[in-house]
Structures are given as structure tokens and as C-alpha cells.
Amino acid sequence: MKHALHVVGRDSAKRIFPLVGLDDRGKIIVRKRWMRGEVMACMAKRPRVTVGMAAWGGSHDWARQWREPGHEVTLRAPQSVKPSGKTHKNALREAEASAEAVTRPSRRFVPIQEVEHQEVQALHRVRERLMGARTALVHARRGRWAESGIVVPQGVNAFRTVVLEKLEAAPAQLTSLRQELFSKLCDALGQWAAALAYDADTLAAMAPRHPAGHRLLTIPGIGPIPATALLAAVSEVGVVTHGRPFSAWVGWVPQPHSTGGQTRL
Asked: What domains, with CATH codes, occur in the chain?
């Protein structure tokens, strides 16, 4: 008697996607490799199955596509998929591990993010990159000015308040070329500051629109930036039972990685 396809495991890839299918007894009945454009065209014609994937880059977009034809999709944390793997790692074995991880209900799953949540997260990531670039620019300027005998205190805010008066107080220490270079650096810092101010205003406008964001803003110490970050990262708060695992999930407390009686955080 031939058993029907029950669970499909898929490995993350860019062009060629290996898929492994299990029947209701957990036996492998399908091993295939499909090109990117063939995956959904083939699976959309099949009856409803459970799809398991590791939560890597692009997994949420694929999960939304798999849900459209009616398939049930579960995303697993990569560390919970790894124990299901066998011997040396390759693409098909990773797909098989994802399929087997679905059949184990004790494993933790990752909520599928919607497009609006990922857009807010993308805005936060762009803002973080801009802040890193701004900090690097400030450090570079402090180093260049120190070589000219102009000492500027650390910190972006302190830098802004004293940079102009320092330059006006020591014009003799700067040649015309150095004045031109420092002027370009100041213009670049102004551009970074304008971009960061725009992102901050956008996040501040987003936070009160969502009911949960409006409630988060009433908590002392929570402003628009952390409120929108929480809304984007935690799309389904019901996946955690109480505050401790929630804090570990969002990175507010260290996660334990202990073995052999040795506690490591």
C-alpha cells in the first residue's frame, strides 16, 4: 500500500532547493531537487501537507508563499533542527532534518512574520547601520584632528557641541587642505544625522498606530524605538509562557548554554 505525502522538509538555498518528503509513518518517500521557479508550481498542485523549514534568511517569505495554496508551514529555530541531522551535513540531509523536526512537537517553532513586521525590522536594521557608520565617522574625525593637535571629547553629542568652537579656536593649526577635508567630514556627518532623524520620526509615527504599540508607550522607559522593535520581533506573543523566556527571546537576558555541570551564559 502506497502512503501519501504527509510532511515536506526544505533546506534554505538560493537557486536549487532540495526537498525531502515523509509519509504518515515517518518514512522517506520523496527526495528531489527543484529550481527556484519550480518549487511553488509543483507544490501548489499537491494536497495539503505540513512543511518544515529552518528559520534562516528568506524563510518567512517562503512560508507565506507555502501558505497560499493551503499548506501548513512550521519554522523551527536552527538550533532545534540541527539535532535531527545525520552524519555530515549536506543540502538533502538538512531538508531531511527539517522534515523530522516537524514530527517532534516538543521542538520550539518560530512564528511566521508578516510583511509589515519585516518592514519595521528592516527600518531598524537600516537605522543601526547608519548609527554604526556615524560612530565610525566620528572616530575617524577625532583621530585626524588629534594629529593636528585638536583634541575632541568622546561621544557623538559631545562631539557636536565642541567641534565648531574647536575649529574656530585653532585655525592656525589647520592647513587649507585639512580644512577642506574636515569640512567634507562635517558635511557627511550632517547627512547621517538627517537620515537618522528621518528614521526616528518614521518609527515615532508608527508606534501609536498599533494597539499594542500604544499600550507599550504607556510603560515607563519604553519609547517609540523599543516599542516598534518589540512589535516587529514578537509577532505572536503567545508562543512564550511567561516573562523569562520572552526576555531571553528578545535578548534582554543571557541564554544558557550549559553542559557537563558547567553553567555558561
From this structure: 7-110 (3.30.420.40), 115-242 (no CATH)
